[in-house]
Amino acid sequence: MLRIVQLKLPVGHTEEQLKKKLLKTTHMRENELQSYRIRKRSLDARKKPELYYVYTVDFSAVSEERILRNLKGKVQKTEGKTCRVPEHGSDLLSGRAAVIGSGPAGLFCAYLLAREGYHPLVIERGAPVNERKEDVRKFWETGRLNTGSNVQFGEGGAGTFSDGKLNTSVKDPTGRNQFVLDTLVKFGAPEDILWEQKPHIGTDILIRVVEAMRNEIIHLGGEFRFYSQVTDIQPEKKCIIINNTETIKTGAAVLAVGHSARDTFQMLYDRGVCMEAKSFAVGVRAEHPQQMIDESAYGRTRRGSLPAASYKLTENLENGRGVYTFCMCPGGYVVNASSEEGLLAVNGMSYHGRAGKNANSAVIVTVTKEDYGSDHPLAGVEFQRMLEKRAWEEGEGRIPVQRFADFCSGKKSSGFGCITPEMKGAFAFGNVRNIFPRELAASLESGIRGMDRKIHGFAGDDVLLSGVESRTSSPVRILRGDDFTASVPWLYPCGEGAGYAGGITSAAMDGLKVAEAVIKKFAAV
Questions:
Q1: Do 352 and 378 reside in the same domain of the chain?
Q2: Which of 120, 159, 270, 454 could in theory staple to 504 by disulfide, Cβ–Cβ 3.0 to 4.6 A?
Q3: What share of the chain is helix, strand, coil (3-state, %, to 5)?
């Protein structure tokens, strides 16, 4: 197999034109090309409005050695990275392997364990994904929160009600990233996630993918228990307690609990599991017209066949803090992502088509232990709760929203300008600035103003800010050793909630790593 990079074609080209470009560049006749596969596609917008797609393509041919000689430096041999499963260990499990949580980390951990014959028991505090979808819809429509089944808790994890973004900065020498993408496609994700520079699935499709993965895990001998919260553990007996009533023996329990499992963090801390507070980030959701973002990215008033444009912006401030955008949702919605009564958090969500009139992203500023005012391992959790209580109060239980001009002057907005919200859940005018400590509010204002230099209009008076974006990542890290076990050695901290990932893809990859650790130690059942 050979690989060629930098195949450049204008936006709107056909598949046949790509094939002809490959043949011409490699000096092949059509009958010499045996197969080809797009490996990566990115957009070149340096000469906008003239836009080009740039491809990396893997192909096999009749005369590969001749092509290598003639195109030395332009074409190279390549071998696909394969995710290799370790040899099974010999230790006997004293009980069934358990995976606590069915977000991307838990699902992929359980999937690999099931494929290898371990018959995992998946324990999920929330609902199956389709029931969860209805619980979330009812919450957005009525404001009545189901604290066990919501945007944060339930099958698929918090990422289910987001954009389904799959880009990650995690290096992938082992092929785990490719395994994750191939698996998602196998269970119904669009094939273009295999090559797009910024792949995404969308909430509507991701729900179907999650359900299909669950069905396959069950087919392979796994079991799912929904509405089953791990409320306690018995460290010496290697047991977990479900809903305060049922005791389950397990020789290995994977803690893939997600970044919002605050009661679980408290329980683990009380049982002596070593953990520490970690830095994360907090801020607002900023809404802009999607057309404005498209014009900035593409230099065109109409994007045509191009997707709704995205952006990623950062600002380093004089006070030493960094402000950056996160989880950007083209053509998306700001959503009420609360999981506790009397507290309010927001997130962003897009469907696969990204057809909403507004773009939104989190604009966030990093916070550290110094901001928490305590060295306690759960101090970050309490900092989140403090902000979410203020957000609840500002919106009187609804999402508080404010024009950027009013955020800067510190007054509640009295009306919208040229931008109106695209939100899931009730909203109300509130002074979003009041949610934050003074330095954080000033940092957010300065960061947004700085971003206006990169996207004109980003700091416009009518830009809408809502809050609070507090669940960007886990405020806790559950410590684990080189063998992936915690201070309680039959527990395996995993994924974003345990502090080892950030986003769907990296969480899924960490789920695979932890599954490999279990496989390496224990014999299959």
A1: yes
A2: 159
A3: 30, 25, 45
